[in-house]
Fold each of these.
Amino acid sequence: DTEVTQTPKHLVMGMTNKKSLKCEQHMGHRAMYWYKQKAKKPPELMFVYSYEKLSINESVPSRFSPECPNSSLLNLHLHALQPEDSALYLCASSQESGLANTDTQYFGPGTRLTVL
Amino acid sequence: EDKVVQSPLSLVVHEGDTVTLNCSYEVTNFRSLLWYKQEKKAPTFLFMLTSSGIEKKSGRLSSILDKKELFSILNITATQTGDSAIYLCATYNTDKLIFGTGTRLQVFP
């Protein structure tokens, strides 16, 4: 089973709202990732969690706040977003991360976010 | 600066044609190269390549890596309309996957 699930599939929010995106995997992977993908562009890395600890933050604005409650779950808390934050948000996981990593990253179906 | 470049950006073919997608890379500490297929949502994994000259094959798809010349190709033979998608190439640099811009393949009946 190489499934990564994400909820919700679609989200529309105003600039003053607070919402959360959720990601779950049951493959025993110890690394989880958040990516942002704009139309006709490749995924851009936002955050990497390794063994439930934040290991990479790609200079993402603080209105995006990641959280890893346990090894199977990854959340992305959203607050005071801007219309330009509208995008497809992808979660991924891999067996490990780190300097020696060559593991395949498996992606979830994504959450399509629209900020009004 | 690390980069992954794919070509062509877009390709339109008829069913039954064979296509070759290209990916060249310049990354420090190269360890592996991955190919993904992205239709409407999530990229789905196709191949991971770590060794030069060894072809990976899955049905009508195959891929090979040349670490000396820093490129990889993805071949699709006897294309079908279901092959229409964006094909993404990515390489690892330390902890991060660096993606190319993708090749959009359209296969018409």
Amino acid sequence: EAQVTQNPRYLITVTGKKLTVTCSQNMNHEYMSWYRQDPGLGLRQIYYSMNVEATDKGDVPEGYKVSRKEKRNFPLILESPSPNQTSLYFCASSPDGLREETQYFGPGTRLLVL
Amino acid sequence: GQQLNQSPQSMFIQEGEDVSMNCTSSSIFNTWLWYKQDPGEGPVLLIALYKAGELTSNGRLTAQFGITRKDSFLNISASIPSDVGIYFCAGLSGTYKYIFGTGTRLKVLA
């Protein structure tokens, strides 16, 4: 089954404790992206990757890091989480990022930073 | 960061009614997209629009790409209870960066 998976689905952590949210897709997609969703603000793009070893900042990259060493994986890293990073995070993938019919979103990761 | 203005923010409607929502931007986009998000799930693409003035339908949904390329509209005809959810517009300027609207929360009263 074609899908985007994220782990963990729920996470509670404390300020300053490094964490990684994993994202994996099994569709051989070139393009992957991370978003955060906050009430009243919709989805905001954090980082995206056009291909392996090619990443770029979205609208709200501060406090986040990403890496794309393999085509299927695109982890989101919070080196020193802060409470303002409490949010619902989505990973998405699509064949090339420029045609949108098949952008798939993962199920989401709900993060609470205390 | 840039965001799209989406209205209304929320709406309650009676089952069977038609629904209209819109999205505006200060920037031009080459592509407009409409997504629906069900509770506890990620957004799912409903309609994609690629040309100014384009009108595209997907079942009971119809969306239009504004002539100025700075706005888009989504209409849902004869709403049903399963239409409940959050609807997002998104714009793509051709640079791999997606800009999403703030969402319209739709509630349908049976």
